[in-house]
Amino acid sequence: MSSFAADSGTIYAIGDLQGCFSSLMALLDALPSDFGQLWFAGDLVNRGPQSLETLAWLFRHGSGVRTVLGNHDLYALSRWSGIAPRKKSDTLDLLLADRRAGDYFCWLREQPFLYQDPMLPWTMVHAGLDFRWSIAEAASHAEELQYALQGKNWKRFLRELWELPPPTRFEDCRNDADLFRLRIAIFTRTRWVREDGTYAWSNERPGADYRPWHRLFLAQQEGSVIFGHWATQGLLLEPRLLGLDSGCVWGRKLSAVRIDGSEPSLTQIDCPRLPAS
Ligand SMILES: [Mn+2]
Q: What is the pLDDT of residue 85?
């Protein structure tokens, strides 16, 4: 099995795990070389069967792991802090009941909404970015949200996040809570947006005038983006865009792309179809 090696400059970016720990181990087995860092595009837990094993492993290898928060990670944090009620499709019970859950969720709460490495061209988010934000502006919005999630009023921040659906336009934000809800939704949930800046929070395309967020972003901003979240769209490998959610939890594939070299190279494994929960 390939593993962490402190002297390795190799970095792989990996798509949404969603608690599919066995698939992560199979993917590491299949990687062609040891690595210094693994980047994960968020949604580390929930839906899949092994959220506990997944988070325990990431916590143990924290010094080599870089990740960003996804919608399922925020939901898991909200479950752990008693804010969100249990959803029927939730598979977090074993994780929430574990005696080390406090350590694991503290680690999760410290993770950012956006990650950049000054030595690499890539910026990583879970779902997307607004096409009117430069990468630098996006990083500053993400940092503000991260402070709020790490601050002493973090439970109030999470409670407000779920109180209302996110607005679909910045023009509709009446206060900071609305603005935070919209920005968090862009970082962790977005797929479709219109050229006038109106978002839709649906999986399906809501109309012909909506486009994938990254088409508008790449046309208007500089920078290269790694993201996950969009399993129905599937793997995207483009010069400035890596869409890494290839549907592992849906019985499709888990993907890793080497990102430290000049030419991104792909490794994939097949994932088992899980029994419906
Ligand atoms: Mn997601």
A: 87
Average pLDDT of span 134-146: 98
Ligand 1 midpoint to CA 192 (Å) = 14
Alpha helix segments (H runs only) across 81-193: 93-97, 101-109, 135-150, 154-163, 176-188
pLDDT at 247: 97
pTM above 0.85, yes or no: yes
Decide: helix, strand or coil at residue 170.
helix
Torsion of CA 140, 44, 199, 207, to 10 degrees: 150
Distance (angstroms) between ligand 1 centre and the Cα of 6 equals 30
Token digits for 95?
């994780």
DSSP 192-236: EEETTS-EE--SS---TTEEEHHHHHHHH--SEEEE---TTT--E
Q: Which two tokens stand for residue 88?
A: 């029927």
Angstrom distance (rounded) from CA 47 to CA 38 = 22
SS (H, E, C) 37-100: EEEECCCCCCCCCCHHHHHHHHHHCHHHEEECCCHHHHHHHHHHCCCCCCCCCCCCHHHHHCCC
CA of 43 to the centre of ligand 1 (A): 5
Ligand 1 centroid distance, CA of 71 (Å):
5
pLDDT at residue 276, rounded to an integer: 60
Residue 224: pLDDT above 90?
Answer: yes
- Interval between CA 265 and ligand 1 midpoint (Å): 24
- Specify the pLDDT at position 167: 98
In the block, tokens 């210094």 appear at: 36
Q: Which amino acid is at 165?
A: P
Domains and CATH numbers, the chain: 11-270 (3.60.21.10)
Report how far ligand 1's centroid is from the alpha carbon of 229 (Å). 4
Distance from Cα 235 to the centre of ligand 1, integer Å: 14
Ligand 1 centre distance from Cα of residue 161 (Å): 16
